[in-house]
Amino acid sequence: MSNLIDVRLEALEGRVSPDDATRAADAPTAAGRTFYIETFGCQMNVHDSEKVAGVLLGRGYQQVETPDAAQLVFYNTCSIREKAAQKVFGRLGDVKAAQKAGKTIGVLGCVAQQEGERIFERAPWVSLVCGSASYRKLPELLARIESGDRRVTGLETDTDETFETEITRRDNPFRAYITIIEGCDKACAYCVVPFTRGPERSRASAAVLREARQLADLGYTETQLLGQTVNSYRDPSPRGLRFSELLLAVAEIPGIRRVRFTTSHPSDFHADIVEALDATPALCDHVHLPVQSGSTRVLRAMQRTYTRETYLEKIALIRAARRPISITSDIIVGFPGESEADFEETLSLLDVVQYDGIFSFKYSPRPNTRALSMADPIPEEEKGRRLAVLQEKQRQIQAARNQTLVGQTFEVLVDGQARKPGQWAGRTSSNRVANFTSLRSELLGEYVQVRITSAGPNSLVGEQII
User: Fold this and answer.
1) Which of 31, 145, 158, 191 stands the most exposed, by the fewest C-beta atoms within 10 Å?
2) Whether pLDDT at 27 is above 50
3) What b/e string do you get for 65-82 counting C-beta neighbours within 10 Å, with b at 16 or more?
């Protein structure tokens, strides 16, 4: 009974849903056991860590803030780029002595799926290697370790159960994630996601809407729908909602004030999505549409399923919307065979699109990808030069675009305090960061009107209008 009470208290704090709390009542418990989890990578990984924490909290484990205080130490990993994977093995080196102190070390997520049992060879003090499709089985896997199994794995990807765990802990008190599609079928030449996350599996619309309603009942006003290719969503239920229809259905839930989604794939981005954004202000005026390269020749080598021209057609759809929509993107420089002319085409794409922000990276060879064996690799020094040129050009574009917003007023969801004393921080519907002054002493979680007084390349500065 005490376990149920504790989890219901978490529900009252906005951590888990009442239904989740009830399901935990009869679960086997591990009272007194402590765990720590560190997360690397994207929003999908952040949300996966919330699922892992929820599963463990529902069985009586207690979450702690440092690995030193934990009996179970988990690293939820990212393998999209080489440095991210290297960082994980660096962390594992830091806790090498932890096993001798009786701690259980676990590697979760994409590096776990990518490396599998090879992790045990590189870090013999690791006891658990578990991919995202097996998180709901964590208690069973941990029970095997406690029974004496030295090395335990959970690496299946052929499952439809990836999305839903019995309990999901919500770490952000203001906005919540909802996974609607897992995996990817696009098979880009540089990307390891189809191997680490498996094929695309969409979640039934009824389950998505039920979770969104529960979040609204808990007081969350902003939700973000997640997927490696979120707009590739195909409702497997008889209702058969398109992605745009699911967006509208979530936005109609009482209490939901903002709906975001990421990450979109250009091949599945169509006019109906823009029409949905125009139909309701609750759908945020921001689209993240990764392009990766401005050169059609490189896009074909990347197996990206679209050309520069067809990508720009998608941009034209967004720019034709009745309200301004912020556009951000992902760009890779130095893909094998990328010529200087190809790189110049990427630079020219920035001029044409005028992105409000980009995430830019040097190409990083990844295991189990076709690009790994491609000829004509670009030297690291040259990749670094191209990245610096790209980022400086985008910085100038962002500074100019943000400057045009000075004097305008935006609604901001306050999610923290800014670095300067007396300032608050939050995000606009278009996902721009706004730092602003206010005469009020407590604003966290509130929506406020902010007039922009100045702007830099990465954020807006303003003052609250009361």
Assistant:
1) 158
2) no
3) eebeebbbbbbbbbbbbe
SS3 29: coil
Q: Please name the amino acid found at residue 50.
A: E
Handedness of CA 348, 352, 356, 361 (dihedral sign): negative
How many Cβ atoms from other residues are within 10 Å of residue 42's Cβ?
Answer: 17
- The HSE-up count of residue 22 (CA atoms within 13 Å, CB side) is 3
Q: Which CATH number fits domain 175-403: 3.55.40.20, 3.80.30.20, 3.40.50.2000, 1.10.357.10?
A: 3.80.30.20
Fold type of domain 2-154: Rossmann fold (3.40.50)
Helix (H, G, I), strand (E, B) or coil at 227: coil
- The two structure tokens encoding residue 434: 């706004």
What mean pLDDT do residues 407-429 have?
A: 94
Instruction: Return the DSSP state at 99.
Output: G
In the chain, count of helices (H) and strands (E)? 15, 19
Architecture of the domain delimited by 409-465 = Beta Barrel (2.40)
Nearest by Cα to 405 from 365, 340, 450, 465 = 450
Mean pLDDT value across residues 410-439? 94
